[in-house]
Write a structure and sequence with these properties.
Distance between the termini: 28 Å
Keywords: DNA damage, DNA repair, DNA-binding, Glycosidase, Hydrolase, Lyase, Metal-binding, Multifunctional enzyme, Zinc, Zinc-finger
InterPro entries: FPG_cat, FPG_Glyclase, FPG_N, H2TH_FPG, Ribosomal_uS13-like_H2TH, Znf_DNA_glyclase/AP_lyase, Znf_FPG/IleRS
Shape: globular
Subunit structure: Monomer.
GO molecular function, one term: oxidized purine nucleobase lesion DNA N-glycosylase activity
Structural class: alpha+beta
Number of domains: 2
Number of strands: 10
Cofactor: Zn(2+)
CATH architecture of the largest domain: Alpha-Beta Barrel
CATH superfamily of the largest domain: MutM-like, N-terminal
CATH class of the largest domain: Alpha Beta
Strand content: 15-25%
């Protein structure tokens, strides 16, 4: 599932492409992907202009010139492509937004994800449920420690809780814990001050590097895109069961915690 690095990468790449562009046509190939009848959704978007693209947690919000928003959550398997032609037949995509310059934004893999047209008020209400952003300047090391101290859960469960911090999921929670040399099953509220600060620094380092590398998405956004997915081969523990740890050579271990896959090095990461 796309997380902060992937969605921020999408936002950065899409903002200059879509800002000020008028939607000439919206095509809905799967009615369940949108939140109103497909014909009404398409009619409401025709001739609308996208002002800018915002990210909140794992969501993208496309701000429209009528004050409404398109709220996107890719969920598991969702992805996007942009260009004059899609990389696959149009029927493969659940929604297609075609702009007045002939380019289109294709939304694929949205079997669990969605693209909803909502009011600004509804968007604010829904986003209000999310926790702080990882790079929110108000989330200082001290504020982060206080948040951790309030969580009566395992570290991985805390990091992937969108009410706790918005934007981190399965992949980067494991990578952050590895960078911080903390076991993902450690009790979040039992970390020492030094361990909490180590986790804070690791969160910023891993997410920054992953975003700059294009995240781990496999689908290029545009035909000339050579960046998207660049972090895929740089994961140190995630989805690497039984492979040797790059630091100590110990086989990476895979377990399940709270219904989620968990990858860690049993030698480098000790439970707090």
């Amino acid at each position: 599932m796309p997380e902060y690095p992937e969605m921020e990468h999408y936002r950065t790449r899409l903002s200059p492409l879509l800002g000020g562009r008028k939607i000439a046509k919206a095509t809905v190939n799967r009615a369940a992907t949108v939140n109103e009848p497909a014909d009404e959704f398409a009619a409401a978007l025709a001739e609308r202009t996208i002002l800018f693209v915002e990210r909140r947690g794992k969501h993208l919000l496309f701000h429209l010139d009528d004050g409404n928003r398109l709220l996107l959550h890719l969920m598991l398997g969702g992805w996007m492509a942009y260009g004059e032609e899609g990389p696959k037949p149009d029927s493969h995509f659940q929604v297609i937004l075609t702009f007045d310059d002939g380019h289109s934004l294709y939304f694929g893999g949205l079997r669990l994800g969605y693209l909803h047209r909502i009011s600004a008020k509804t968007a604010l209400e829904r986003m209000k449920e999310l926790g702080p952003e990882p790079f929110d300047p108000r989330l200082t090391p001290e504020a982060f420690r206080k948040l951790l101290a309030s969580k009566r859960s395992r570290l991985k469960s805390a990091l992937t809780d969108q009410h706790f911090i918005a934007g981190i999921g399965n992949c980067y929670s494991d990578e952050i814990c590895f960078e911080a040399k903390l076991h993902p099953a450690s009790a979040a509220n039992k970390l020492s001050e030094e361990q909490a600060e180590r986790l804070y620094r690791a969160m910023h380092k891993v997410l920054s590097e992953a975003k700059e590398a294009g995240g781990y998405m496999e689908h290029p956004l545009t035909p000339d895109d050579r960046l998207t997915g660049g972090y895929n081969e740089r994961c140190l523990v995630y989805d690497r069961p039984d492979e040797p740890c790059d630091v100590c050579g110990t086989p990476i271990r895979q377990e399940t915690l709270g219904g989620r896959k968990m990858f860690y090095c049993p030698n480098c990461q000790r439970e707090a």
